[in-house]
């Protein structure tokens, strides 16, 4: 295994762990272990790529696909057991619409399918990761609303970055870094 590909293998590992969650009973120790490994790998792949100076377009795309697959699997698994109010459903669709619009703009403007690795997007991912802890508790609904606020800010920021940027910078930290 070549060291320059380690971060890519970590992203592939996240894809495989995410898909394996579809075949494991929810809230078992096996599920929790694999879920945590997937979450840790999400942090680890980018860290390893930066520390080993092996960041690449392929790695960024693998990370994006791993994020999308993990998010889709988690939504599929947790939707039946999570409490979604009508407000949350509308809000989630609005966030989704902003995300899709941002991706479409990036594709037509930069000829690449990409989700930006902003600090807001990373923060959203972190808070999403912890949502299962609150399922069934009195913090479930407030936690979901809080994550929606953070996800809304991240989505709008990404949309603005894609509109205002002159070139694609997948690893841009924030809207404030666009013209630096």
From TrEMBL:
The chain crosses the membrane at residues 12-37, 68-98, 110-135, 141-164. Keywords: Membrane, Transferase, Transmembrane, Transmembrane helix. InterPro entries: CDP-OH_P_trans, CDP-OH_PTrfase_TM_dom, CDP_ALCOHOL_P_TRANSF_CS. The keyword Membrane applies. GO terms for biological process: phospholipid biosynthetic process. It comes from the Bacteria. One of its GO terms (molecular function) is phosphotransferase activity, for other substituted phosphate groups. GO terms for cellular component: membrane. Pfam families: CDP-OH_P_transf. Belongs to the CDP-alcohol phosphatidyltransferase class-I family. This is CDP-alcohol phosphatidyltransferase family protein. It comes from Alkalicella caledoniensis.
């Amino acid at each position: 295994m070549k060291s320059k590909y380690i971060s890519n293998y970590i992203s592939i590992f996240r894809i495989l762990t995410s898909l394996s969650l579809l075949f494991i009973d929810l809230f078992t120790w096996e599920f929790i272990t694999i879920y945590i490994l997937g979450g840790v790998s999400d942090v680890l792949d980018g860290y390893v790529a930066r520390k080993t100076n092996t960041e690449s377009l392929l790695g960024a795309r693998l990370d994006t696909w791993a994020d999308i697959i993990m998010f889709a699997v988690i939504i599929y698994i947790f939707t039946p057991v999570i409490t979604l109010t009508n407000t949350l459903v509308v809000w989630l669709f609005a966030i989704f619409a902003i995300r899709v619009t941002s991706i479409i703009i990036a594709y037509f403007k930069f000829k690449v399918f990409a989700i930006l690795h902003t600090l807001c997007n990373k923060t959203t991912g972190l808070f999403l990761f912890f949502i299962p802890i609150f399922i069934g508790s009195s913090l479930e609904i407030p936690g979901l609303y809080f994550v929606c606020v953070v996800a809304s800010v991240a989505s709008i920021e990404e949309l603005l970055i894609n509109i205002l940027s002159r070139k694609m910078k997948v690893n841009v930290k924030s809207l404030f870094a666009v013209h630096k």
